[in-house]
Amino acid sequence: MQVETFVKALGADFYTGVPDSQLKALCDYLMNAYGIDPARHVIGANEGNCAALAAGYHLATGKVPVVYMQNSGEGNIINPAASLLNRKVYGIPVIFVVGWRGEPGVHDEPQHIYQGEVTVKLLEDMEIRTFIVSRETTEQELLAVMEEFRDALADGQDVAFVIRKGALSYDGKAVYKNDYDMSREEIIRHIAAVSGEDPVVSTTGKASRELFELRTAAGQSHKYDFLTVGSMGHSSSIALGIAAQKPDVKLWCVDGDGAALMHMGAMAVIGSFRPANLVHVVINNGAHETVGGMPTAAAGLDLPAIAKACGYPYAVSVDSFGALDRELAAAKERRALSLIEVKCAIGARADLGRPTTTARENKENFMEWLREL
Fold it and tell me: Is the overall model pTM greater than 0.90, yes or no?
């Protein structure tokens, strides 16, 4: 189904969400149609943030908003869906559009398998009426379902369209770029060179995939790295949990701007404890690149200033390899919590692979290495 047909059937004029590769057609269409506009289209920090934005839109206009997301974001909407939107509370109608990663019977990455199994059940448990959109869904079927949904929405009930892989298509293109030169893969190569055998916690998405391939190419062990393949936004908290138990071990967290934004409160918690053995590197390309390149709000933020306000005793931003190498070397020796923001270009190798070990193998090898330290 062409995304223009889908959007027309929904009949909404406000969209907010967190980008998803399964919804790339919708995301690219919205960027071309509206760009980033607080009155029409907002890419939120996390899905709960988007649900609250949608509630505000409804309160101001009386109209029905759309919240789009990957199914991994269902966890972030449970609280606002149950305690704010639900018709037993405020009865605020929202149309959710959910990309179905890990659909049973469709091959996907390990972090999506269980989430895919419970995607529809979670929505139904939250009393969100659901319809699954596939390649075979016709415009007439969609319009008929939307007509039924309008009655539910008028009664303050939420509804959801769960989008199967390839169900939406878009003939247009959206181009995402910035003005920085350093590639993320090269940045991670420099981090790995300095961190050596220190444990590294890397964020979800292409950063972990690149770290894995760099270790393989260099003939290094993967035991040094915990690859956070899911749980976007939580790598720094995982790193804090390890750093607190291993105070004599230098620990590195390789984070992304979209992930850091998603649960930015973690920085306040880290800053309150100031683990002297933790180096928090945020690679900032201002984009949700792993799922298509749509922009994040981090492009215009002063992340070092935020980190310092959260209690980080040292925080700096770099945009060249010379400055990066100097800061990495200094952080390696420094006995103080450090944040290094690295300004990064958008883009990755087309042939970038995925880890060849399972998530559980990764965990066990990493834990064994921690026990040796």
Answer: yes
